[in-house]
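REQUEST FORM: STRUCTURE PREDICTION
Request ID: SP-0412
Submitted by: Lab K.M.
Chain count: 1
Length (residues): 307
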Amino acid sequence: MKEGAAADQAVQQAQRRTVSRHELGAHQRFEEISPEVGQLDEEAFDDALGADPDAALSLLADLTGATDEKLKALARKLAGRVMVELARRGRPARRGIGRLARQRYRPDGGDLDLDASLDPVALARATRSAVDPDELVVAGWVRPATALALVVDRSGSMGGKPLATAAVAASAVAWRAPADHSVVAFSNEAIVVKSQDVPKAAERVVTDLLALRGFGTTDVALALRQAGTQLARSGAARKVTVLLSDCRSTVPGDAVLAAQALEELVIIAPAGDAEQAEWLANATGARWTTVAGPGQVPEALARVLAD
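STATUS: Completed
RESULT:
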């Protein structure tokens, strides 16, 4: 079975429990957004999003697990669009330190490299023909590509705000490295939601991640090893693991050793519960920050990825 299909199957097997209308009623604006069974009022949701983004996104995350199948389908469709759009509001950071490199000619590529372009120029002169631009070489500044691997803690209870935060993080990673990223959800086992080298639409990644239920203990070392496995498939000059977790391991495993095997680690932890994340960052030299809710994720990611 190809890994993309295997990942989809793993997601299906880890579907989280459904949420009843009674449970959804604990959200303050639920009755406005879903006034009747099978209904989702997108205008009411937009109003809620404008008033309190974190509360609205937390509700939307729980709606994607509704017992009401029609409401669940509507919520998942909306969530894919909303989470991705929210991630795109954060500006992708300029990546890496530029280096001077020879490359094929393009008008904005840099200065003509006369030594490397001497042969095609001489041939054109000898044959009294135009110089073939495809044979010319310029010296210009290029930036190294960046590959990202997001590992999301799904242990214990995963719903509402933590689930929405994970979904926005997946969208933000996809926005910053659309062709070279992976998403792994972990507890005491790892589920590859999106493989590093297998294309998958960001909206689909979001809905698959939202479908996962919280389960099991927390194995941070396993998560970091899985990130390394995914990034090993990339040819990018910069490979970054993004750990979204409180980093509190509840099973044996050397998270520090696993982190030190990675090229680069950044940590995003929940505000108010970041002591272990800070410890791991200090022990490994990782950059770290906190978020209070899903709306803060794009800017938090920008901070930890900045040079």
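NOTES: The chain is about 45% helix and 15% strand.
Reviewed by: T.R.
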